[in-house]
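Notebook entry, cofactor series.
This is the third protein in the set we're modelling with a bound small molecule. For this one the ligand is magnesium ion. I'm keeping the input format identical across the series so the outputs can be compared line by line later. Sequence and SMILES below, as received.
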Amino acid sequence: MSAPQPPQATADVPTLLVKIFGKDRPGITAGLFDTLAAFSVDVVDLEQVVTRGRIVLCALVTEPAAGLEGELRSTVHSWADSLKLQAEIISGVGDNRPRGEGRSHVTVLGHPLTAESTAAIAARITATGGNIDRIFRLAKYPVTAVEFAVSGTPTESLRTALAPEAAALGVDVAVVSAGLHRRAQRLVVMDVDSTLIQDEVIELFAAHAGCEEQVAEVTNAAMRGELDFEQSLHARVALLEGLDVSVVEKVRAEVRLTPGARTLVRTLKRLGYQVGVVSGGFTQVTDDLMERLGLDFAHANTLEIVDGKLTGKVTGDIVDRAGKARLLRRFAAEAGVPLAQTVAIGDGANDLDMLNAAGLGVAFNAKPVVREAAHTAVNFPFLDTVLYLLGVTREEVEAADARDA
Ligand SMILES: [Mg+2]
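Returned structure with ligand:
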């Protein structure tokens, strides 16, 4: 037997593209290749999709021995006719052209995903010089998610071109570079308030202290840029002075996880990811979340408690905007994951450094300023949609859940 030839060996070889279309049923692939086997052809390429019960099966095979092509054609057609399938056979040369340099995955999330948005995204990909090589659906629930495999243009240019288009269309688009690293073990680090959970923990404490309005005033002043994060944290925590420690338990019970949070963490853990949280909130809550969700890392500020009462102070270093990025780096080092293979998720301005330091920064239902500065944005209130940005399909998530049920 001769050694296998390198891929270019098929470049100039005559090939036949056999396309089968029709109602899907078991045995079509076996039937087609049974038919082709009689002509001793080799398989060069093979792709199949089923959409709403209709199969499209494309087989690229080498040309049969001289004089047999006519017979191959008529045999395939009569086999297809017998199953009420349509067959098309096109003569040609070689295989696909090699995919261009610069390969990316473009994930588009829509609810609904309109034809108009799909047209605009595809047109923009083409305008950047990119070619769409493959498309497939990742999920139909809770949003419609499709992934385009694109080549021929740098990931960064694609990202820059698609971000404004996505914002204008009201769909979410994530662009990540293709390659083995996408499947390498990663680390996901999340913000807590309004990201992993629906609440702002300081507001839950403030409600028990009867100082919600004052806390909101400080928050607004910080948003107007009159206070930095650290000043606003101290000012708000000071309002909690004298609160009984029993409130901590109450607040833990009040915390509402974001829809999809459990699914996201559970699925990431199954995939071998490490998952952490960093919060400008409090360890009194993040430690509990870490235990409930089985997180690998958690870091936050700690409310000082003396003699069963909150003192209105926090202890230790403050987790602020720069601190969150530092913690991402620390967690990555501890997890043994290169920074380029980390994912950060957050909603606030103090998450921006962390989002930009990560390999993929996801602005989650974030304010416009955060959304525009991040690599990608998810604007649907389901945390598990982040899985689709990583190429995980809904079907895989559900199959894993069913298996472990
Ligand atoms: Mg937040």
